[in-house]
């Protein structure tokens, strides 16, 4: 058994496997790491492609599509390794990319998760939307990244070339200690997809672990491979899961106020979608809130289990202001923490 398992979750992603898997295998099958595929019951020719061109790669086939969270939970339970790397199928890795992440985790036992610098596959001088130079949250639970604030993407000019602690790692390339993954019960499968990695990292921090950004490792991400940015289902997942995230993890003294403010922001977003003619997105926000209310009993039970870890610590990686206000009103496209 090698200490690092690079694990790609696939669902009808043959085109990405054809484009990126040879690169991943070339740079990720090393003395310390191997590559695995978890297949979420694909209906395309993904499995045939893997059998024909990569028979040496172990493929774990699931009986249905369990989403990002459930798929990884089901598949990783069948893989033995000291570290898992959750890697999207639309990521191009670079030579030796594994080693800076591995070496940092080996030297820092309180680090649960680390991530590489994530840049755009299509514009390689720029950061990529879903991770960039590490993830953070604002005072109302809006996620953002160094290198990306809403739709403002920074060019990589070396401004984030030092390692530092972050609040969450992108699930596109997430290096996680397997013992912590097991300790925390893995990703929350009720999220299905989107923000489950933020929930995991928040829980890890409340357990006393840290999350790190390691720029010596660099990858390039296509982004939006399974669900494009303008997809109403993606809108639904983002709005619903953000409420899930807050309800589960906020300290009690901040919970009700923060969720109330988020509902106001979500209402404004819904109206904006309506008047912009984005009917599907408007309906998605409404459905997200309906399903959130229907899930409160389940969320309360999860919160009760986590109650002993819900931290009142004011993490330095939580921005103390509203990024919505800073970006849309003050016209700032970069946040300094």
Task: Explain what this protein looks like in three dimensions.
- It is a single chain.
- Helix content is 40%, strand content 19%.
- It has 337 residues and is an alpha/beta fold.
- It folds into two domains: 4-221, Spore Coat Polysaccharide Biosynthesis Protein SpsA, Chain A; 232-329, no CATH class.
- Strands 1, 2, 3, 4, 5, 6, 11, 12 and 13 form a nine-stranded mixed sheet that branches. Strands 7-8 form a two-stranded antiparallel sheet. Strands 9-10 form a two-stranded antiparallel sheet.
- The longest helix is centred in the C-terminal third of the chain and has 24 residues, at 252-275.
- The radius of gyration is 19 Å and the shape is globular.
- The chain starts with a strand and ends in an 8-residue tail after the last helix.
| CATH class descriptor name of the largest domain | Alpha Beta
Query: Which CATH architecture of the largest domain would you pick?
Result: Alpha-Beta Complex
Any idea of the CATH topology of the largest domain?
Answer: Spore Coat Polysaccharide Biosynthesis Protein SpsA, Chain A
Output the number of helix runs.
Answer: 11
Q: Report the sheet-strand fraction.
A: 15-25%
The total tally of domains equals: 2
Helix content: 40-55%
Number of strands: 13
Regions with little confidence, pLDDT below 50 for 5+ residues: none
Order of helices and strands: EHEHEHEEHEEEEEEEHHEHHHHH
